[in-house]
Design brief:
This protein is of the alpha+beta class. The chain has two domains: 98 residues; 267 residues, no CATH class. Helices cover 33% and strands 23% of the residues. A seven-stranded antiparallel beta sheet has the order 2-3-15-14-16-11-12, with helices on one face. Strands 4-19-5-17-18 form a five-stranded antiparallel beta sheet, covered by helices on one side. α1 runs parallel beside α3.
Length: 408
């Protein structure tokens, strides 16, 4: 191998190294998590040394200009690959830090609300940048207790339709327990189920509650439930738990399953009382709720609508876009189950604002967000009808501890 050939190889290697080091250096300028202190200085040192190596390689090529280089394709191929690599890295940095904030807001609001994937955005953004985005996207929940008197199950006239949403809910087959309405949200499939008898809506439990979760469809089959959605949140350290431990308060058929009330924050109790009214409560123990007549409940949030008043949303509501599940109830007592899928790359789905808008359109006076992401499932006759996608981008769900279901 002559001097000119060695110079060309060194040039390609140095260009690859310069591009890579430049990307790391730029990320390090914005992040105090991925590249910090000494490591940042090491990257800068490598960048300087690689620049010197590039100059040396150019000198070698110049001095060996009369010597044979490589075949034409052996020259063009690495140049094209390095060029594409440089364009890709530049595009990546532009998406992360450019003037268009859409991706930045999606990544930060989505990752920071998962609790287990916050490092996704902390790799690339400083605490100040994260707080700036979060301060532009948030939800202010209605600070009221649910008023059960607003629900009147006798006020259910299926012949008068105020709008197309009312018609979609109320026009049904006689004696139907439920009806499923299919539509799209942000180019993703959404399924809204109207359950006409709220007394049939119960909480179902994993057979191995406290130890391991089960698929929502499996739990539904065990209860012989014709329709079910996933329920409350659960402890998931490292995003690798078995899904068996519900957070907060869990009540099933009037029995206390878990009693870890959450005070403050966006989580609260979501359940039905003995009058079959959806009740949304903050900071109450399971035993207090049972004494107040709550028969079935889980813990999650935020609350989307309370007493007909929608929560105030700034931006996308601060929870980003993902597969979502929500539950609501209309003034006529009809219960709404809502599931929205994500896309193939889990970059789309519904925001909290989307959920609140859908629930408002279909007449909910009380509504709350349930667990989302891979957990978001609607099962009919024991079969999943939506398309959950997990963190490996496989089309499958995961084990969960609780569901809301129709059960006689």
């Amino acid at each position: 191998m002559n001097r000119k050939q060695k110079g060309f190889i060194l040039l390609m290697v140095s260009l690859f190294g310069i591009i890579t080091s430049s990307v790391l250096f730029v990320i390090g300028c914005f992040s105090s998590y991925l590249i910090t202190g000494l490591l940042h200085r090491v990257v800068l040192t490598f960048l300087i040394l690689l620049t010197i190596l590039m100059v040396v390689s150019i000198v070698l090529i110049y001095k060996g200009r009369r010597r044979r280089l490589f075949k034409k394709w052996q020259i063009i191929l690495p140049i094209v690959l390095i060029s594409l690599y440089g364009i890709g890295c530049s595009s990546f940095l532009f998406i992360l830090y450019g003037p268009f904030t859409g991706f930045r807001e999606w990544l930060i609001t989505t990752a920071m609300r998962t609790m287990n994937h916050q490092y996704y955005c902390k790799w690339f953004y400083s605490d100040d940048m994260i707080n700036e985005v979060l301060n532009s996207n948030y939800i202010i929940e209605v600070s009221e207790d649910t008023n059960p008197d607003l629900v009147n199950k006798d006020n259910n006239d299926d012949k008068l339709y105020k709008n197309d949403y009312e018609k979609a809910i109320l026009k049904r087959d006689k004696d139907a327990l439920y009806k499923i309405i299919h539509f799209e949200v942000n180019d993703c499939d959404a399924y809204l189920a109207a359950i006409y008898d709220a007394s049939l809506v119960k909480v179902g439990l994993s057979r191995y509650i406290g130890e391991a979760g089960q698929y929502a469809s499996t739990i539904a089959k065990r209860y012989n439930s014709p329709l079910a959605i996933n329920g409350g949140g659960f402890e998931d350290p490292g995003h690798n738990s078995r899904g068996g431990n519900p957070i907060g308060v869990t009540i099933a058929d009037g029995k206390v399953i878990t009693n870890n009330p959450i005070y403050g924050g966006t989580y609260g109790v979501i359940g039905f009382n003995k009058d079959d009214v959806l009740v949304l409560r903050k900071g109450a123990s399971a035993y207090t709720l049972v004494n107040e007549g709550i028969r079935d409940a889980v813990t999650m949030g935020p609350f989307l609508i309370v007493n007909g008043k929608a929560s105030t949303m700034k931006g996308n509501g601060g929870w980003g876009y993902a597969a979502r599940t929500a539950i609501g109830q209309r003034a006529d007592g009809i219960v709404l189950f809502l599931v929205v899928d994500s896309n193939e790359l889990r970059t789309k789905g519904a925001s909290m604002k989307d959920l609140a808008d859908i629930m408002t359109n279909y007449g909910a006076i009380n509504a709350a967000n349930l667990d989302g992401g891979t957990s978001s499932v609607m099962a009919e006759q024991g079969e999943i009808i939506n398309d959950p996608i997990d963190s490996t981008l496989s089309h499958k769900t995961r084990g969960i501890p609780t569901i809301f279901m129709i059960k006689d």
